[in-house]
Amino acid sequence: MEIRNLTRSYDGRRVVDDVSLSILPGQVTCLLGPSGCGKSTTLRIIAGVEMQDSGEIWVDGKLVCDTVFRVPPERRGIGLMFQDFALFPHLSVADNVGFGLKGSREQKRARAEELLRKVDLLRHIDAFPHELSGGEQQRVALARALAPEPAIMLMDEPFSGLDNRLRDGIRDETLRLLKDENTAVLLVTHEPEEAMRMADEIALMRRGRIVQQGAPYNVYTRPADRAAVSFFSDVNVLKARVDGALAETAFGQFLAPGIADHTEVDIVFRPQHVRIDFDRGGSGPLPTPSDGVAARGVVERARFLGQESLVEFRMDFDGGVLKATVPGVFLPKAGKAMWLTVRRDRCFVFPAQAG
Ligand SMILES: Nc1ncnc2c1ncn2[C@@H]1O[C@H](COP(=O)(O)OP(=O)(O)OP(=O)(O)O)[C@@H](O)[C@H]1O
């Protein structure tokens, strides 16, 4: 499926702004972004329940809709799965799954059996929805959406109604089934973890626009801007000014290629890329090319978060706070002086943003 330059405004405000995307068979593309950025509107336009102001949607080289021509939703070969998926309460599991299918009763039953076996619910084929747990109902909804063999599946926050314990298992199972059926998937979510877990491709959306697109690893390690870094994790930000393609900081110099002299920059890095060293008689580790210069800070607070510990330092050089995470348990006492260094290859330098 190819989406070209979709635009949609409400009351003069563009909520979908020139969105283009390709979605391939057997791949999960995640539309990831904060609440209100236009993800659901994009999905509703693709589903055909909402009209765009401009732009086109193509499937398999055929035009599905532009501003004049429009294939109706039910003839687009698109399956839908939304957060508030509703099974028909008065129909059995088998009839729910077979609902959108053509053919004889036996054929519908056979397809329902095939899919229910795949989601491991064959034993519940004659049960009614209220007899199933939330997670089981979700799997029935997935089987129902996949039953007509849609070439494309649109999923809008499909797992957000489930409790955490169930969610990981159902996500993985859903992924396996979608791959098995070679479906092209567009999944909308506001949770970076979900996108990282599910996606072959992430399209990061902000204020109606796609600001970055790529494999999860690339989007995470080569973010387009400061907001893209902080969307995925906590960040630390150092302020500096460029001089001769270098930005001078208490952690030493950072390369700022392509940024004009005198530009204010943000040097952004994640807490897991801060290294902590103990104070040795008032000094820290010697400078290295990979870690730069050490800067002194005093522990303000340390908390154990389960897999890792988060330590906040009040830094000597500007009185600001920097965060560091350390795997396992590391809970130094407040007031203890330590030295921080930052992995150079994990820092991003961007022209400064306000705030
Ligand atoms: N029918 C409508 N009329 C007017 N404004 C709308 C309509 N539908 C959506 N909007 C507005 O468009 C913006 C984008 O909404 P949309 O639901 O696409 O965002 P989203 O990224 O999916 O957010 P969420 O994750 O919270 O659902 C919001 O500000 C919303 O208030």
TrEMBL record:
Source domain of life: Bacteria
Domain ABC transporter: residue ranges: 1-232
GO MF: ABC-type ferric iron transporter activity; ATP binding; ATP hydrolysis activity
Name of the protein in its database record: Fe3+/spermidine/putrescine ABC transporter ATP-binding protein
This protein's UniProt keywords: ATP-binding, Cell membrane, Ion transport, Iron, Iron transport, Membrane, Nucleotide-binding, Transport
GO CC terms, sorted: ATP-binding cassette (ABC) transporter complex
Gene3D superfamilies xref list: P-loop containing nucleotide triphosphate hydrolases
InterPro entries on file: AAA+_ATPase (IPR003593), ABC_SmlMolc_Importer (IPR050093), ABC_transporter-like_ATP-bd (IPR003439), ABC_transporter-like_CS (IPR017871), ABC_transpr_FbpC (IPR015853), Mo/tungstate-bd_C_term_dom (IPR008995), P-loop_NTPase (IPR027417), Transp-assoc_OB_typ2 (IPR013611)
One Gene Ontology term from the biological process aspect of the record: quaternary ammonium group transport
Pfam families: ABC_tran, TOBE_2
UniProt keyword Protease, yes or no: no
Keyword Transcription regulation among record annotations: no
